[in-house]
Amino acid sequence: MTPLVFSSTRYDYLADRLVACTAWPRGEVERQRFPDGEKYQRVVTEVADRDVLIVGGTLDEDATCEIYDLASTIVGAGAYRLTLVIPYYGYSTMERSVHPGEVVTAKTRARLLSSIPEASRGNRVYLLDLHVGTIAHYFEGAIRTVHVYGKPIVTAAARRLGGADFVLACTDAGRAKWVESLANDLGVPAAFVYKRRLDGDTTEVTGVSAEVRGKRVVIYDDMIRTGGSLVNAARAYRDAGAVAIDAIATHGILPGDSIERIRATGLFGKVVVTDSHPRAVELASDFLEVESVAPLLAEHLRTTSWAAGPTTLARTP
């Protein structure tokens, strides 16, 4: 059955790109805001007995509630099957508790989305390059989770930036295993920096794990927020003798003037991210290149089975 594609407000661009890749029909939603800020949504396209796909990221509470409200209404209107495509799953800062009583927001929001009524042929959710893979297991009940890794996009971008001879690097030892796997696939060395925490908010780089002198370095991380860790790592690689540095991330969050401050350091030739977050799309430039995840998502949406339990596609450890 051909899916009918809907999207949350800020992900219209990605739904349109997915439709361009697949020729799947687009669903229409009427939206407006009341004077007090309350949101009005009406599903215009008939969804009864249809396979329905909703594209939307959990960017903030409003965006998460928009997905929940839209999905619940579509199932209530008789959708045959429901698929949520969440290219960027927020709440990664609070993905676990450290102190007693802390709210694990990544888990409570997964429970919220798990409570969407079940379509007659079930619900599933696609998640892209989670900051912590265990988040896929926070979803409960009958909903199926599919964790898609952006490995094809990352490796292609790394090869384009680094050429035939470069070092694939990461911002800290916590990502070393992931980057090492990507480096092995690319046939290049891997590197990471050693960091020491000075206090709750500050760290310092104490060393580099591999020889980068005279080498091009491409740094990979799953996301760039303000870019502080990225810049600190790049300085360490430059001080260790790297001759050129570029960066790749799946998710470009980049609040405020983050990308301008990253560029102003003069450390980077290019930064490449995907369009998993609308902020990256808004900021695209000659310095910030944005690759679309639509073809990758389309490939997996066409092929994923409906086996129970979390599924990982194109896994990178």
Model description:
This protein has 317 residues and is α/β, with parallel strands linked by helices. The chain has 2 domains: 4-149 and 294-313, Rossmann fold (3-Layer(aba) Sandwich), CATH 3.40.50.2020; 151-291, Rossmann fold (3-Layer(aba) Sandwich). Helices cover 30% and strands 26% of the residues. It is built from 9 helices and 16 strands. A 6-stranded parallel sheet has the order 1-4-5-6-7-16. Strands 9-8-12-13-14-15 form a 6-stranded parallel sheet. The radius of gyration is 20 Å and the shape is elongated. It starts with a strand and ends with a strand. The mean pLDDT is 90.
Q: Main β-sheet: number of strands, strand sense, barrel status?
A: 6 strands, parallel
- Total of DSSP H or I helical runs spanning 4+ residues: 9
Strand content: 25-35%
- The termini sit apart by 33 Å
Low-confidence stretches: none
Rg calc: 20 Å
What's the count of strands?
A: 16
Overall average residue pLDDT: 90
Overall structural class, as computed from helix and strand content, comes to alpha/beta
Shape estimate:
elongated
In the sheet with the most strands, the strands line up as 1-4-5-6-7-16
Total number of domains? 2
CATH topology group of the largest domain: Rossmann fold
- Sequence of secondary-structure elements: EHEEEHEHEEHEHEEEEHEHEHEHE
Residue share in helices? 25-40%
Query: Which architecture name of the largest domain does CATH use?
Result: 3-Layer(aba) Sandwich
CATH class of the largest domain: Alpha Beta
